[in-house]
Amino acid sequence: MVKILLVDDQQSILQAYKEFLEENNFLVITADTPRKALSLLDKETLPIIIITDIKFPAADMDGFELIRKVKKEYPLHEIIIISGHATMEFVIEAIRLDASDFIPKPCEMNLLLLAINRADNKIQMRQIIKEYTESLEHNVQERTDEIKRMEAQLIQAAKLSAMGELSASVCHELRQPLCGIMGFSDLIGKKLSEDNSTKSYLEKLNKQCERMEELIENLRTFSRQADTSFEPMSIGESIEDALSLFDQQLKNHHIKITKEIPQGLPLILGNKTKLQQVFVNLICNARDAVNSLTNQKEKHILIHCQKKDQDTVLISITDNGVGIKRNLQARVFDSFFSTKSVKKGTGLGLSIARTIIDDLKGQIDFVSTPGEGTSFTVELPILELLGQKIQRADFSSEKVVAEKPLLPRREITPGLSL
Ligand SMILES: Nc1ncnc2c1ncn2[C@@H]1O[C@H](COP(=O)(O)OP(=O)(O)OP(=O)(O)O)[C@@H](O)[C@H]1O
Ligand SMILES: [Mg+2]
User: Residue 156 belongs to what domain range?
Assistant: First the structure.
């Protein structure tokens, strides 16, 4: 309902207009001085129409002053002037102050209704324009953010592609001399007797060569030159394979490992070597994180798999290690980002993992609380063959947690609360 504030120093006029306007379904409030009228307004008041006289001989403010103050402080209200002094000078001043209408007294009531209608239209139009502008600003902001995101992705993609090409050729160049070094080192080893003390140097040399080979392999995967054929495969087996590489090491470091890998998980379409590479890196990272603990708490890694929904299997690798500092969390998937010593980390593990998981149309993500631990999750689409999901009953060497409820995503077991 349109609200009107009537301002006039003559009670009889106020009364007459009020009755007339209320009969025409307007909500009316009145004030007999401009000052009182101002006291009825505040910033929260929805736009209203103020109908005012100009001359208030007994008051400290006239109608023009009221208009000036209203326009300055509450610019959304509309003002109609009704005055017995309809001189040219007054009309010009009313226009200058942006009054909506000027009606001479005695007022023709139909004219008043027309003026109210016009003022109300102005208020409505202003509201529509305001909402439109707001939504336009919102849309522009959204689009700008999206463009910025896409630009960042493009820059990253261009960097990666340049780096990929470079690393592919560097890998090729490095591999050959490395093979030579390894071959000759083998030959020397064979020529040396078992008790020759030089053998220990050769072993060190071989270890460094193996490290280089691993690095080259990482770079090759990074540049996507490696084998990318996919086949139906079991997530459980892939995790078990990855874990088997760590068996002794985890024991030596007194790291407790809990596996929650239920039987009968659906197969996924993947590449064994590559998925193993993902899990090896995630386990390596978890191992390094718990090994970096300086307190006495038990080191713990939990590996959990579950069918998340009709289309997805979810794997989480959660550790109660040092966690990732909040200001570094956005960078962990960046190529060559590492907080480890040069000997220990190349900073390619997670960026390679993401490339592999992207290729499999999956997702990799993490939550981490510094000082409490980190949980990486990998989601992979379930393989659909001829419209039917292939189930495999028994692939896990360890039958685990049959009666234990599966953890939903990002929920951590009591011993591993993040
Ligand atoms: N589970 C984790 N807990 C704490 N920090 C982690 C964890 N996983 C990853 N990070 C952080 O993310 C960084 C990047 O990990 P990423 O696996 O890509 O490289 P890296 O482990 O340093 O080297 P590498 O190439 O040998 O894997 C790590 O250096 C570490 O700071
Ligand atoms: Mg790593």
Answer: 148-222
